[in-house]
Input
Amino acid sequence: MLSSALLENPLRQGLSSGRVAPPCSLVIYGASGDLTARKLVPALFELYEKHLLPVSFNLIGISRSAISDEDFRKKLKEALLQSKPQVSDAIWNSFSQNFHYHAGGYDDFKVYQALAVKLNELDEKNGTVGNRIFYLSTPPNVFEEIISNLGAAGLAKEEKGFSRVVIEKPFGHDLDSAKELNQKVREVFKENQIYRIDHYLGKETVQNFLVMRFANSIFEPIWDRRYVDHIQITASEDLGVGTRAGYYESSGILRDMFQNHLFQVMCLMAMEPPVIFEANAIRDEKLKILQAIRPFDEQTVRTHAIRGQYGPGFLAGQKVPGYRQEAGVDPQSITPTYAAIKIFLDTWRWHGVPFFLRSAKRLPKRTTEAAIQFKEPPNLLFKNNMTELSPNVLIIRIQPDEGITLKFETKVPGMSMEARTVNMDFRYGTSFAEGTSEAYERLLLDCMLGDATLFIRGDETEAAWAALMPVLNLWETTQPEGTFPNYEAGSWGPAEADEMMEKPWRKWRKL
Amino acid sequence: MSVPTAQNIESDLTGLWKIDQDSHLSQSGIRRIYTTNLVAYASDHEDGYRVEGILGDLVQYHPGRYILVRPAADTAEAPLRYYVSGRCLSWADPEKRVCCDMVKLVAQKEIIENLYGFTFSILVPDLPVEFWWPGDMPYYNSFFEHMAEQLNRVWVDSSKFKDPVQSLARLAAFWHKRYPKTNLADMNWIRIQRWQALIAELFDGEWSKYLKEIKQVTIEYGEGGTPLRSFYLACWLAAQLGWRHHQPRLSKLTDPLVFEGPNGSVEILLKPVPAPDHRADRIFAVGIVTQGEHAGIFTVVRDEDPHLVIARSEVNHQLAFSRVVTFEHLHSDDVLAIGLKHFEADPVWKKTLQMAGSILVHPDMSLEKGSKG
Output
């Protein structure tokens, strides 16, 4: 995609930094928070180092904390130096020369009026030509307030340049709140100005799904119900809730992981090839997948969705507390920290193929992957010689150890006809020495460039919530069956999850 | 040592990696993964060591099969010998580990002339093949000719050209006619890309209107060297901004350059500045002056701190903006690593070379292959 900077500036042509963002101001709400210091500013710094951040760039942090511009910059610098200790004062000062801070309540309209004046001044002074991005890195309960005030202050209008809003997850708490939030945001911003962020989509390996599927001809012909037995998507964490108990108690694993990350990965795995590589074409195809999720009823929630919560256990030899013993957690909490869901997509391509989605905290390791298990070979040819042939599995590892593995059968050398499963591995780490970019780096750049491909459209969020609501409703209104907590920290989750696999050859992958 | 055959080399390499896999290193996930073939030629024994060192460092960027061809130091040596080795680099991150195969072919000069077929036979199939010719451009060399005809891309390093004007003019005049299917790349072009990026940045967005008003460009380079990089930069600016060179063709790179721009003539001065010997030809500063309604000064200057460069602009005698960026010295392996990252042909480089060809005196074609009857 050619950026406007490139189109206007012939000297940009052919440079590796050709995908440079146009001049703009980035306004971060919740700027004193962790995300700004730990993710957003380091991502901006990477863009700066790669000559992808425009020379005309302003960052304005807004938050309730009463700190000065200087203290704001100092805090960001300290955070950056933790990951990049080599950054010199001269470089930092240059990078942060147009960083500003504005203290104020999100409900105080005067703050927005002052912001409008400040942005105009900076446009004049630094040549940012009226291009603005408003990044909402605040608790979700103030999203509507901020957006409404931005609208009232005239900051959503695209008169001189663009005006975009980036909204961090969670986007809504359920279907109704997501619809309401969508409506409120759309009253102020048009859909093409709204960038709902899911940092999973900024990961290199998630983007590689599209390249792997649609830039190779060998996968797509077997990517359907005729050859695929089932698909497993797993996102496991070895950590517990840590300091996020307050948030987690009201969200749980379904809101935290399924509605956004896992559903998005499933969409990329299952969607039809878009006609063009363009934001809406891709998002149209993802939406079709979300809309094709076979609706759950009470019975299928009971059989196709397993919830769990970790009790005390051991991780790496260390005793760790159970969820109910974590600080800030209700001792009687039924909040799920584990969920496994079997999903059927009612599409021509995927009819009858189950998608098993699993995510949990306090499993033995942190890993995210999608695995396509192909149907078993008929085994007619070798039935007298071999006891069992394993099905082929194609595994796309998202983190850690990003890469792709194909498991297939091969003959063991020797006089007998014996087969063994072997792995054919592709690893980013051994094929490309260059490190993969941080997700926020890519997503911030895309937003500046107006490329919404890796952001979620409003109808996608609603479709995802709609699919998940029957499970959420039942889980939040009924006590779990059997004992709860039902899995030990450091184990692979409750045994009930195995039952949903139905067939003897289907097993949760031990990662 | 085994008889030099493709089979023996493959077999030795397989054995080499098998030993490694059987050792404790197998735990850290050794895999023979190739993303490229790179064939390098060294003109003599000494150059061979230098090139081998650079290839050894290059593995950290591009796992692949590297083949180094060099002449034997002594005519008493065997007509052709080979050596295989493997090299792996690990990072703190246990998943990050890249390896390469290295095959060194040492042959008598007359053997090398006809060694292209053998070299082709030990490439990893189905992967792009890069050919790095680190020395001066040869007038006729059978090995070079065959490699350039059949491989994907040839890397030259114009900083090594003994007669840069003649060699550059030759490349501009004949390369794409003689080797239409083979991309040409110059390591010196990679070396100036960071300057290009910094200059380009100064003219992004609303500042792009100043490009039409450029009147004078001064490029300062290290005294004592040939200002080839500066000349490249000048040609790049002229080619990208559509300037035309009307003056007589140049026989020296230091002659003033005058172009016809959209709003009148544009002068480019290549100015030597005192510099330590090893910095000869290095660019030290670029200053661009615009006039008329959009008068301004745009500069990119090396800081006293050798790791920093400052880009800044002044419009109407007021600072418009400034930016400080890191500017680490690029070694040859860094330059190649950057170059090998992108495989596509570089149309901007092609345009710049054409511009250079239109400015420099015509090359002496009587020395070219086939011209001597």
